[in-house]
Structure formats: structure tokens, C-alpha cells
Amino acid sequence: MIEKELLWKFGQKLKQLRADRNMSQIELAEKINMEKSNLSRLESGRNNPKLMTLVKLAKALDISFNELLELE
Fold first, then answer.
1. Where are the alpha helices (DSSP H) in the chain?
2. Distance in angstroms (rounded) separating the CA atoms of residues 48 and 54
3. Total domains, the chain
4. I need a surface site. Which of 18, 25, 38, 71 has the fewest CB within 10 A?
5. pLDDT in tens, 27-64
6. Does residue 36 contact residue 44 with C-beta atoms inside 8 Å?
7. Coil, strand or helix: which one is 64?
8. What's the rounded Cα separation, in Å, for the pair 38 and 1?
């Protein structure tokens, strides 16, 4: 899987997980201490998240780190 496709798939999954929890981008961004614009870039596949961002996202979404990264 090429990098752009992987980032896009991750972003789509992140967006769906957030929506499943009825969270806005602002709410999730605040939970992980991130600017909403940066979260938006993650969801659109334009940014490559850092490891600690992934850890914070999993915790904020109440899922395991592995579940967050499971893309297929």
C-alpha cells in the first residue's frame, strides 16, 4: 500500500470512529490537545500522525491502539 493511500484510509477510519461516538472534530481535538485544523488534516489523509498522537487518539476514542491501526 502506498503512503498516500494508507494515510487516506487511516483518515477515513479516524473520521468514522469519531462519528460513531458522536464527537465533533473540535471535541476530539480538545481531548488530545490538538488544533482542530491538524485533526482535519489527519482525517483527510494530508498529515502523517506521530506515534504519541496515535496513542492519544486511541485513548480518546476508547479503543485499543491496534484497533485504531487496523485498516483492512
1. 3-20, 25-31, 36-43, 51-60, 65-69
2. 10
3. 1
4. 71
5. 999 999 999 999 999 999 999 999 999 999 999 999 99
6. no
7. coil
8. 24
Domain of 51, CATH number, reads 1.10.260.40
Structure-block grid coordinates of residue 36: 482542530
pLDDT band, very low/low/confident/very high, at 9 (cuts 50, 70, 90) = very high
Cell numbers that stand for 23 in this block: 464527537
Q: Which domain holds residue 17?
A: 3-69
Task: Give Cβ neighbours of residue 25 (< 8 Å, ≥ 6 apart).
Answer: 18, 36, 39, 40, 43
Q: Is the full-model pTM beyond 0.90?
A: yes
